[in-house]
Design brief:
The complex is a heterotrimer. Chain A is built from 24 helices and 20 strands. Chain A is α/β, with parallel strands linked by helices. In chain A, α10 crosses α11 and α18 (about 495-510) packs antiparallel against α19. In chain A, β12 (about 410-415) and β13 form a beta hairpin. Chain B has helices spanning about 5-10, 20-30, 35-45, 50-60, 80-85, 85-100, 145-165; strands spanning about 70-75, 110-115, 130, 140. Chain B is elongated and about 50 Å long. Chain C has three domains: about 5-75, Ubiquitin-like (UB roll); about 90-205, 2-Layer Sandwich (Alpha-Beta Plaits), CATH 3.30.70; about 210-560, Rossmann fold (3-Layer(aba) Sandwich). In chain C, about 35% of the residues lie in helices and about 15% in strands. Chain C has helices at about 20-25, 75-90, 110-115, 150-160, 195-200, 210-220, 250-260, 265-290, 300-310, 325-340, 355-360, 380-390, 410-415, 420-435, 470-485, 515-530, 540-550, 555-560, and strands spanning about 5, 10, 50, 60, 70-75, 140, 165-170, 175, 205, 225-230, 265, 295, 345-350, 365-370, 370, 375-380, 450-460, 460-470, 490-495. In chain C, α7 links the parallel β10 (about 225-230) and β11. Chain C starts with a strand and ends in a 10-residue tail after the last helix. The chains are: A alpha/beta, B alpha+beta, C alpha/beta. Chains in contact: A-B, A-C, B-C. The interface between A and B is large, with 62 and 47 residues.
Chain lengths: ~675, ~160, ~575
Amino acid sequence: MQRLTDPCCPSCTHTPSTPCVRFVTCRTEGPLCHDDPACRARREELLVAARRERIDVAVVTVGTGTCGRGAGALKVLDAIVRWSEASGRPVRIEETGCIGLCTAEPLLDIQVPGRARLFFGNVRENQVVRLLDTVIGRGEAAPRALGQLAVTGATAWDGVPGLWDHPFFAPQHRRVLARCGTTDPASLSACLADGGWRGFSRAISGFTPREVISEVESSGLRGRGGGGFPTGRKWRFAQDTPADQKYMVCNADEGDPGAFMDRAVIEGDPFRVLEGLAIAAYAIGATEGIIYIRAEYPLAIERLQAAIAELTACGLLGQNILDSGFALRMRIKKGAGAFVCGEETALIHSIEGKRGMPRPRPPYPAVSGLFGKPTVINNVETLANVPGILENGAAWFSSVGKDTSTGTKVFALSGKVVRTGLVEVDMGTPIRTILEDVGGGVPHGKAFKAAQIGGPSGGCLPTRWLDCGVDYESLKQAGAMMGSGGLVILDEDTCMVDLAKFFMEFIQKESCGTCIPCREGSRRMLEILEAICRAPDTTDNLATLERFRGVTHLEHLAGVIRATSLCGLGQTAPNPVLSTLASFREEYEAHIYERRCPAGVCKDFIEFSIDAERCTGCTLCARKCPVGAIHGAPKSPHYVVPEKCVRCGACRTACRFDAVIVK
Amino acid sequence: MNSADLDALIGQTPGGDPSQLIPLLQKVQEAAGFLSREALDAIAGHLGLSPAAVYGVASFYNQFRFTAPGRVHLQVCRGTACHVKGSSDVLDTLQRELRIQPGQTTRDGAFSLETVACVGACSLAPVVVASGPGVGSGSDFHAAMDQEKTRSLLTNLEQVTECNA
Amino acid sequence: MPMINVNGKSVRTEPRETLLEALRREGIRIPTLCHWEGLPAVGACRLCVVELEGQANLVPACATPVVEGMRVHTHTARVVDARKTIIELLLSNHPDDCLYCPRKGTCELLRLATELGVTERTYRGARIRHAKDVSSPSLVRDPEKCILCGRCVRVCSRVQGVGAIDFTGRGAATLVAPAFIDGLNVSSCVHCGQCVMACPTGALTDARHLRRVTAALDDPDLTVVVQHAPSVSVTLGEYFNFPPGTDVDGLLVAALRRLGFDVVFDTSFTADLTVMEEASELVERIRTKGPLPMFTSCSPAWVRYVETFHPRWRDHVSTCKSPQQMMGSLIKNVWARRRGVPADRIFSVSVMPCTAKKAEARRPEMLTDGRFDVDAVLTVRELAELIVSKGIDFRSLEPAQPDHPFGTRSSSGKLFGATGGVLEAALRTACFLLTGENPASDLTALRDTDGVRELALQVGGTELRVVAVSGLAAAARVLEEIEAGHLAPHLVEVMSCPGGCVAGGGQPHGQDAAAVATRMQALHRLDRGAPLRFAHENPEIRALYEAELGEPLGETSHHLLHTHRGGGHEA
């Protein structure tokens, strides 16, 4: 089957070895090199096909990103195949990345010829038959559709709201995610038909590298990986450093616990990330692009590999790209699992095959980086923003957001929230909008406690900061930071001391061990937190004294770690403690002075018992108890033996009468 | 994995280039399941590095292991979202049921347990990922785990590994 | 010349230097633990942090280049408190057994804790426990005392090109260890001891032979013979407040006598003997086109390095035993017979600037007739400790002379203590062997503390090309050059430690380039004014050949003075 990227007829001479500067526009608006009505018609036809504006058979698109697969999307895919075979109706099945509404996975959309695309969430394997029977078989809109997506020239479904009007999507502004979940991430044709690689074509044919950088600088784009450093300025440093070889690195080693933006963007739209990488490489004069990606993301790696191969095959990567003289090779380096490799110099060491230990800066990587050559490292989302700037201009980009925080930001919304998923909003959007409108609030009627933003180095924002906008400055003012985009919602059942302990444990484990303040200091801080959460030791009088002494050292230690650590990970290592301490001091005090955990999480401070009034003696809890700590005769109230109880909570989960009490 | 296979595998990577170390370690581990002393020595020799340097790099990263994993390798996600949704209870349950600590393999070689920082599937929290020959190719994500589901997961997997053993 | 402001005072600095260099030149003491001269800054210990105006965080002086107009504060309350906290954090994971530590007195951590006024245990917590590694014949590794400054790792891999140890694990579980955290004995360690020199604490120390020696000295049935290496007399004095480079030869002999050693010989005598054998071996190899270039064999770490890393060059290493082993062999086989002492009643001790000598003495080929030639090897450090522990006031001793017949040395033998010295001594004698005349001038071109020195000279109508190299990474580069055909020397002298034995792994701890240079100059000064400057003119050497050995490379020499590693001289 002819694809959009293929030549229309033998008159077309574009190949990777005989490149044509107008390749991208030729494919989408051409042919440009010769005038042949037949060819123009053919191009038009291919374009319409790539955009799926005209289809012959029904198309079912299943979101098969990692979230989708985790929720069972591949089983759904099989069920569709089986339905097609059983019903004898031909169905074209396409796969796509994550659309963002992860709670609704497995998610699919059905497009029958001449009609808009209908989206359905939480589709179980056993619901496939009825769904396809209704929509494809009978041509009716099945109930409980999430929404519909208009297709040019196709009729909309009656009574079905637009997909983008869904409360999850309505407040969003999808730029980076524009193609995620609706377009085939494996098809370059679909990408080009949607306007992909136009930014690159414009840059390479109409802009000098210096002009590209000026454009990016005036757009106000800042690093989306955490630091928020102006992207254009970083590029300029590298451009200004003369060298025989430069490297452009895409940092996709997404290590923040609670963040999955990069994975979803790469799985959903690898071409956009690669386009940004290619523009950046052109701007700084790099001939090699490296994508440093977590090995735990096999699907993202697979999609990147396929995308690189396809781009190379049609001459968008390789030698003399689009006859510009610019050459670019791309390769993938799989990270091996070390959070600290998000730090630039550690990442460079890792690519060089060394232990990922940061080194002091200067020299900065833009001057002396990978193998001693000028190197720019940008995160996935940063690069995914670049094509739009080159395609539509700096003014378009900065038309949304706030003064020093232009554009949009992608967040991974998770935790205690009704709708979890991938969210892209304008910079400056209040957290409340993300929590309540996009996320649908806290489930089970529980009270909101805090929003944890920015990963381990970030902070926890309590209710009084809910109207804080998500932009670099406001978040800093609130005592948090943008970070890479992890946004975890916490409710009343979350213990903030336990959370601080969780993050310290993470930081302590992920510290590279090079510098003393981070290595030894974070360990001591963790021990102090552990002592706070541990049951009083009645046999050791000194233990209490030590616990208090530890608490008095916490803030001083945090100050020294922050001021003296070698890298960003170390300098922000005390943040989990400082930020929870700032807003939830009373929870700490309850642990320290009253030896009590208000959220009922810290196991040393809680006790399980059974309310004899409510217990029916059904014996379910006793059967579920893994350690045999619950006794009682059938049909009479049970009781917990505290010495045996491991406080796992299995009984509480099991009890149908709310008889298990935690104090 | 015998030494001829190992040498052949290592030989596919050009020698003498230390920047190939991590990809080569990944390749060998993928084929052999873990990194043996012999493998590390062979890799060191091939790339012109000292065995201490190779071990130093391998032991730095979470991905590498130096003992054989179980037929089912269980990874418990310890990301933030998983933590606030109770992954520590899931981990406790696995430790209690399997009687091993993270990083260890059960004596019968059926299960190995590991914690991972974040598998990037936060919306499925808490997540347990099962992989290895005991579950076929690829890896299975088990979403929204609790103690009850963890125990039944183990029961199911035990039946599978017994069949495959 | 960037001008910076330090503590309110203008300071002129050199372009491209670091703040640390500028501050130290200015006479401001900035504490460091991970800094090592000549290696790139790693910024790990953070002790050298200073306050830099305009920066919120403190910056490490070792890794911050000077920039015009910088305003620096080196000892504000905040800075001093941060440094103290860092030391306190290190101490919170450190054993409290300073009283029993071999490094008490020379421990940098203890010194810094004292300087920064640490008087109580501020941070308490679990200590990470590790077992001691006593598997090596030369070194002891005690990971609990390791502060992970990484100096040993960098010296081992970058200066020595060995890489026997590296960081393993991560975070608080980081550990400096050989691969798989095995013992040093199964690693590629060559025993050079440069890691011990670099270690600021007691994490890397000598495999101590002191107890063995004191026990032997206390045993009335044993004749305890001691030898001391050429460089020992110019470094030992540093432990007794003599300036570096003071030759305390007479005091050293006196101290050894006072300690109860029955006989004191000078290893420089067997250095002369080595010259005779090695020069002859070279002439022989040139004549028979034996494996060339020939490498010297005095430095045991080098020999082990060749065996471990470059086995194809093994036959190129001279078959001569090192001076220590020649002396050991002579003592138990010649001297014992002459004195009528049964060899198994002799306890032979050497004092060496070297930890590898401890391992060398235990090599299987160092057995003559089933007995080890040398029973115990003391480093200079151990000897100083022994002298102090026996209450000897070193400075007030009356200088004494060594015993004979192995006590007379030429100054050539003494030159063995510094890089280039073995070549210089051997070439003097080779010249005599080839031309019948002593060379007219000294080969000062070979005298330098570092790098690779090449020399081509005409000896009796033939060109003799030699190379002197110290440091094993430099030696590896020389091997590469030879392999590539860029170098084609006849003789290559390799000393494992950068600078030679005066900077050997058994010398006073630490890194002091000035001291090393002074020690080296002291050896050259001794040579300049010496009445006896040629090994072949040493009367005791001549007497030994006449009475016992016959001629160099003769059968007895072969039995007593050469190893049989499979060189060209087996037949």
